[in-house]
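INFO  loader      accepted 1 record
INFO  loader      residues=249
INFO  predictor   begin
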Amino acid sequence: MNDLSNSPLIADLLHFNDRIDPLLPIDLSEPDLLSLLQILHDMDRSDCGPEEEACFWLTAARIAELAILCAGNYADCAEFALAGDLLANPLRIDIHFNDGREPTSKWRHGRFSDQVGQTLHLAPREAMKTARAYPRVDRSALLPELQQQLADAGMLSEDYLESIDRRMKTIAETLCFMAAWQIRDGQDLCRRLQTVREPEKSFVESALCRFQTGIFNRLGADLRRMATRQQRWSGFLAMDFFCSPLCQN
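INFO  predictor   done
INFO  writer      dumping tokens
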């Protein structure tokens, strides 16, 4: 294994992980998560070895965990738009026009036809017929983007990647439950829970995400032990990493 004691990337990663350790879902928003992801990807990974690459992707997984915790907290508080932004609403959609007009970015929230109508100064229905506009996703929502990045890296175990998928489905199911129960927002949920009987309250509680920080913490502990040579493995990494000849020296 390579000597990591003088690795600038490892130093940057340890400092970054120290920074994100105390973060809580209630303290985070989508812009915060995007900023953390950008800081991580701006780190210099040129000439890094497999152990450094592993530590990088364990850190990326910790950002994914923060995003999952944040989205789960939003869902549990019936924050439909905020949870939906992280889970499904693309970060960027471009509107293209068949009449040669320059593409424009779609509003993050709001109807496609309304924006096309405003752009052409026409009623939405008339504008859609005139412009023959169509949307094209340029950047997916943050959670699917992180999920794809982690899968494409090939460094994380299938079990861990599947756990991300399961928890994303749980978030979606919680939002569906809130909508079916006709909950408008967090305050409405609190009022409803105060008025229902215990069996129904327990049923509602069972439909919530209630995600904990255990995986986030274990990822950080494994990363630090690998970075400081206290261990040579992590259960979150794919077996291919451990079978690499570079990791057997």
